[in-house]
Amino acid sequence: MNLAGVSAVAFDLDWTLCFYSVSVRDGIRRALERLGCRGDLLGDLDEAAARYEVVWAEEEAARAPAKRVRERTWVRLLEEQGADDPDLAASLAEEYAAIRMPSVCLFDGVKELLLDLKGAYRLGLLTNGQPDMQWPKIKTLGIEGLFDAIVVSGEVGIYKPDRRIFEVLLARLGMEAHRTLYVGDSQEMDVAGAKSAGMRSAWVRRNGEGDPATAPDVSIGRVDELREVLL
């Protein structure tokens, strides 16, 4: 664990710094209730939640605005249950967003860590996603002013793990790659992506063991454990 010479620390956003306190399952249940729909309109709620995440990922891969991704996800889920109703899908998508988006919150200790790191390092944020999804999260979390540079991939048209988006971040930070540590929860998107750009990497191992081929410089269970190695 050699982090000598590191002068900047950059972070992934989702599931690294923040999470939703309202689960996908709960968001679906409450959206259905608000519109007076049957609770089993999408079938079993646990299965519907798992399916929602799969369909969302497929739709998001097309790089459409978040509103469109949400609506397309609900259209498909309803169609899979034999309900072809785009208007209902649009209404459910809107209710779901209104329920779940405000529930975004930082993991324990994150804000305190960022405040302490800011006195010693340049700080960056690099997140995949569309601006109409990611910027509202950043503003809700109240962390925008803590970073020297923020890059939302959808604004640039390049997405992790492409090394070029990490290079955009480095340019905005005014930092050399080998002096910058990138912190994220995905070995593919964050660790491998950062390494391809010549950066140091820290993996937040929320899902257990990873791929030795993309071994990070630092492996931690929680973001605030960085305090022990950086401060």
Essential attributes:
alpha/beta; Rossmann fold; DNA polymerase, domain 1; 2 domains; six-stranded parallel beta sheet; two-stranded antiparallel sheet; 10 helices; elongated
Tally of helical runs: 10
Question: Roughly how many Å apart are the termini?
Answer: 14 Å
**Cα gyration radius (Å):** 19 Å
Coarse morphology = elongated
The proportion of residues forming helix, as a percent range, comes to: 40-55%
Give a quick account of the main beta sheet: strands, pairing sense, barrel closure. Answer: 6 strands, parallel
Q: Any idea of the CATH topology of the largest domain?
A: Rossmann fold
CATH-scheme architecture of the largest domain: 3-Layer(aba) Sandwich
CATH homologous superfamily name of the largest domain?
HAD superfamily/HAD-like
Strand order of the largest sheet: 5-4-1-6-7-8
Portion of residues in beta strands equals 5-15%
Q: How many individual β-strands?
A: 8
**SSE order, one letter for each helix or strand:** EEHHHHEHEHEHHEHEEH
When the domains are counted, the total is 2
CATH class wording of the largest domain: Alpha Beta
What integer is the average pLDDT? 94
